[in-house]
Amino acid sequence: MKDFDTVFDKVAIIGLGLIGSSLTRAISDKKLANQVLGFDGSEVVRAEARGIEGFGADVTETLEEAVSNADLIIMAVPVGAVGSLAQELCPHLKDGAILSDVGSVKKSIIDTVVPHLPETCHFVPGHPVAGTEYSGPKAGFSTLFEGRWCILTPIENTPRLEVEKVSNLWAGLGSDVEEMDAEHHDIVLAITSHIPHLIAYNIVGTAADLEEVTSSEVIKYSAGGFRDFTRIAASDPVMWRDVFMNNKEAVLEMLGRFTEDLTQLQRHIRRGDGQALEDLFTRTREIRRSIIEAGQATE
Amino acid sequence: MKDFDTVFDKVAIIGLGLIGSSLTRAISDKKLANQVLGFDGSEVVRAEARGIEGFGADVTETLEEAVSNADLIIMAVPVGAVGSLAQELCPHLKDGAILSDVGSVKKSIIDTVVPHLPETCHFVPGHPVAGTEYSGPKAGFSTLFEGRWCILTPIENTPRLEVEKVSNLWAGLGSDVEEMDAEHHDIVLAITSHIPHLIAYNIVGTAADLEEVTSSEVIKYSAGGFRDFTRIAASDPVMWRDVFMNNKEAVLEMLGRFTEDLTQLQRHIRRGDGQALEDLFTRTREIRRSIIEAGQATE
Q1: What does the pLDDT average to over B184-196?
Q2: Which of residues 246-275 of B touch A (CB under 8 A)?
Q3: B149 chain-A contacts, CB cut-off 8 A
Q4: Most buried of A82, A142, B141, B216, CB within 10 angstroms?
Q5: pTM here?
Q6: Is the pLDDT assigned to residue B22 strictly greater than 60?
Q7: Torsional sign, CA B57, B58, B64, B70
Q8: For residue A298, is pLDDT > 90?
């Protein structure tokens, strides 16, 4: 039980992919709930999850079984599936239950969940900034959230106590918890996560389509930098499709800034302005150092 | 001496940064030359190199000392410095000496080196596709080239024997060696290395300049994808400035393709075409698998 009180009696995790299955393992390992229940809409995933040793959750056969007695329900499905999941599960929530999620986009999720929420329940939107390029229940691991940030974007008028219960859970999982409003979250993540993924997907696509350079050459010489982009561009296609569809405004805004800067860089190259290039490349080196100092990357 | 013959009696490495100092260590460790000589234009770097245990080279006080008796001279300086270095060292080359380099751009290097080359010597341009984001003589290590590709772009009429001597050295360092023409090299590397660096530098610059998002937020939430770009954008500023200044044509061409594709992706997002996004994101995932299978990345 470490130095945290049991925050919840029963926690239900809905969606048993990378994030959901990391949650079942971590909550169970760290004994942050008396019981962890898990459910996934796919029968194949449920069967797979049941076969995993140390999975940490009782996998139920129906959504209702998982949800109806839970004190905390965390929806760990792609952003585009959260709305219909909320609609389906909300009628089964018990009085006082807290609903939460792990989506990489917050404003559209709040808009789609709140209309379904019973008056006696609270929705505390969350986003653990953690992940890998792998998917599915086998990809999860209990230390995924350690030393990573979890952002909560509480809705107006949610009692502090409810927010703090969710916050304590994430702290118990080893995360640093931060609160901000949903709109700001969506802008911050557009630049730190969504645009990096978009341009990684894009360059891998560009490279694959070239006529002058064969795929085999792209693969062979990928250690020159390309390789690092392919890791990101191997992330879950449906999850990322939904992120871009549901954070359209912030993504397009940040993409505009990126393209504007890239056009200037292109001009520097065309005109042979080496000093401008060197200045930028020196500045960006500093940021890497700050990230290492902040413990968000290792040397 | 492993299963390679001593390819060279004396090898001189000029420029003792990450690549040069990895070469001195590796050639010495693998006993691929009877003597390794090292020189760097910076007195500070020479002193630093002399203080490193296992550095693998006798660091000379002048360029002439390092070069004049060497059978193979490898220039490991930024692309933009190769021309003036070749001009300075060529008069000291002994008859039959082979000159080589490690630059990430090949056509402009050939154009700048060949006019200085004595008739009795041969220039065999090379490019090990390996590196890290660190610089300087302390950053080097002897296994840097193992399992990586080294591309040679031989000039017309160079005797096969001379090319093979250089090829054998790289094979002895653990690299797979490939030959192609310089122009093709510059296109292949533009997409697999130069453009990935350019867009990494660019997005890190964009993120640093935003008013809506603080630097501290960018750093905190970098684990969402941005972090991986900062590693690449921490690469040596002068080296990379020179790459873009000297591979202008191929870089601008490939940047044009990248931007074209990005514009289309932007349109898919704006129009809400989720299927087009999902299709691309699924396709790019396959390429990652191929890179892992080819041993150029680990899971």
Answers
A1: 96
A2: 248, 251-252, 254-255, 257-259, 261-262, 265-266, 269-270, 272, 274
A3: 220-221, 223
A4: A82
A5: 0.90
A6: yes
A7: negative
A8: no
Can you read off the two tokens belonging to residue B293? 């299978």
**Token representation of residue A49:** 């999850």
The confidence score (pLDDT) of residue B5 equals 59
User: Does one domain contain both B22 and B167?
Assistant: yes
Nearest Cα residue to B280 out of A2, A237, A268? A237
- Tell me, yes or no, whether B133 and B209 share the same domain: no
Same domain, A63 and A192: no
> What CA–CA distance (Å, rounded) separates B57 from B16?
10
Which residue range(s) make up the domain with B188? 184-293
Q: Do B189 and A296 touch (CB under 8 A)?
A: no
* Tokens found for residue B11: 């090898």
Considering only CA atoms, which of B58, B56, B59 is closest in space to residue B46?
Answer: B59
Structure tokens at B131: 């590196």
Touching check for B234 and chain A: CB below 8 Å? yes
Query: Which residue matches tokens 């129009």?
Result: B271
SS3 (DSSP) at B221: coil
